[in-house]
Amino acid sequence: MYGQTSRIGVLKRIYASYLYWLETAVAFAAYYAFYIVLISREHLIFEAAPMYIIYLLIASSAVLLTIATYSIRRQLNVSKSAAAGGWSVFASAAGTALISCGCESPIIAPMLYLIGLNALEVSSLISYIVSYQIYLLSFLFLLNLLFIYYSLGSAAGMRHTKGKVKMSVDIK
Amino acid sequence: MENEKEGSIRAEEKELKKETSTLESTVKSLKIITYISLLIGIIAIVVAAYALFGIRTTPPVVQPTTVQPIPNTTFAGYNITGTLITPPMSIPSDPVITAQQPFGTRLTNINAPLNASELAAINDAPNSYYEKAGEMLLNGSLTNEVGTTPTAVPMLIVNGKPSVIYLGSITCIFCGENRWAMAMALSRFGNFTALFKGYSSFGDGDLPTLYWSPAHYNQSTVDLGSFYKSNYVNFIAIEDTDPITGGFNLQPLNVIQQEINSAGNSVYSTAMAYILKLNNFQGTPYTIWGKYNVGGADAVVLGNTTPTSASSLPMTYMTHDQIFQQLSNPSSQFAWSEYAAADLYVAMICSSINNSAPVCSLPAIKQIEASKGI
User: Fold this and answer.
1) Residue A19 maps to a domain
2) In the list B120, B137, B264, B327, which could disulfide-bond B124, CB 3.0-4.6 Å?
3) What's the number of domains chain A is made of?
């Protein structure tokens, strides 16, 4: 109960500032723009996965980046926060790459050739991704939620050690 | 006692300062990383905006390309003889559906052969349509995105003729859209004695399209062959099938290869081995036009303009009859774009057969060849 309240408290503290709302909006726009550019360039009009999963993934990535920035500014678990920020960028980019596996020229295909796979291997991998696209995207979204939960816990200064709650100091 | 305490405090202060300094330096570097990430995000927005507006405003003019011819005209062992596959005219397990169904989830007339007038719209369209569409393509007056950069590849020669090879999927929206232009292009070098009505999958547009042969639209397999005859080229059609009521799906190439090999036709087995040897398959449609390879469709013709979202594709709400009417009497951007997309394929075949077919003498085709460097 204590942990949940603290996490929500941190979230409230973050979004009490319009600057963090702005950051979330900018991050969402950037991630969405990345997705739009790629699908426009590659004519990926239809995706095997529904659009809401893309919006969820991008929105959660934007929130995660905001929490990471807040933590870094407050110097709370800086290295872990930076990792969370990095993950947020990776998750949205990976989501876009996965969604691109439609019928025409998936974005990831040239990359797969670049790392030495042949046509048989590339087609197998793309077929696999197409078949399990929604599950893979959902998995990325769940990892984002997990990172958000962990980052909020970290920012709240909680670390559970052997059943005890250890508080860290917010030095700013 | 006091000195000891002072000493201890000083040592602690010193250690604290050291830790603070290390922490500050780490934080500083991480802050830089964060700000760089934000900067990249802003740049991404700018690039995205530029690209989006660029995509919408750039006229689809054919750009000169630098297609490099490959010295050897064929791979060793890819000049063969053999018979092509003639598919069945119907598949009992995947019958013609006559019920009228709503757009988006319709299979009305799927697997029905085209009637004589519909077939004539493909086989007998006047060359003047191709000429006018080619001119529109060249002068940038098409609103749809038409254009591709082909890759030069060695030819697969079968029975002394270059080959057009198609590897696609009945579930794929771009294959569905592309088959119209393909059929129109191939009709300039021969004719189809049969074509069939089809659709892309429900999850991929449910577009009205043509099938080369009746499709196994209820199951995962591979349909081979067509009813095309030509003195200039061979047409080798490989169609992956999956349940049409689902979304896009594509079996891995090794599965497709196994199914082709089990069909026992040496031309198709060789064609598949040839595709694997090229080692550049990325997605469907995948086509070879004599000595040129096109990865993906050569146009995005889903209505009168290139669509920007999947929510409302005009072609989803078109019937086969409407498309045949537009192709028979072209007046819309949709129809001219289909002819222009066909022109690109015609130019590739012409280049591969030393411009020996009558259609190759059309000025627009010659200009497309010149502008594409093929």
Assistant:
1) yes
2) B120
3) 1
**Chain A residues close to B238, C-beta within 8 Å:** none
Residue of A nearest to B302 (CA): A45
| Angle at which helices A119-155 and B253-263 cross, to 10° | 160
Residue A5 CB: number of other CB atoms within 10 A? 10
Nearest to B315 by CA among B295, B296, B335, B341: B335
pLDDT at B40: 62
Q: CB contacts < 8 Å between A and B, how many? A: 153
The answer to the question of residue A172 being in a domain is no
Strand B151-152 relative to strand B227-230, pairing: unpaired
d(CA A172, CA B17): 16
- Rounded to whole angstroms, the Cα distance separating B262 from B284 reads 22
Who's near B75: CB < 8 A, 6+ residues apart?
Answer: B154, B156, B274, B277
Model pTM score: 0.81
Structure tokens at A147: 């990172």
Query: Could you tell me the residue range of the domain that residue A140 belongs to?
Result: 2-158
CA distances from A136 to A59, A109, B80 (A): 17, 17, 44
Is A29 in Cβ contact with B248 (below 8 Å)? no
**Least confident segment among A17-26, A98-107, B123-132, B136-145:** A98-107
Which residues face B222 on adjacent strands?
A: B240
Tokens of A141: 């979204």
Which of B27, B250, B295 is nearest residue A105 as measured by Cβ atoms?
Answer: B295
Out of B172, B281, B308, name the one closest to residue A103 (CB): B172
- The verdict on B243 touching A (C-beta cutoff 8 Å) is no
Residue-wise pLDDT tens digits, A5-44: 588 888 888 899 888 999 899 999 988 888 777 766 666 5
What Rg value do the Cα atoms of chain B yield, rounded? 28
Tell whether B249 lies on the interface with A, counting CB pairs under 8 A.
yes
Tell me: pLDDT of B41 over 70: no
Task: Name the amino acid, one letter, at B352.
Answer: S
> B280 touching A, CB under 8 A?
yes
List of chain B residues whose C-beta atoms are within 8 Å of the C-beta of residue A53: none
Domain-located, residue A166? no
Gap from B357 CA to chain A (nearest CA, Å)? 31
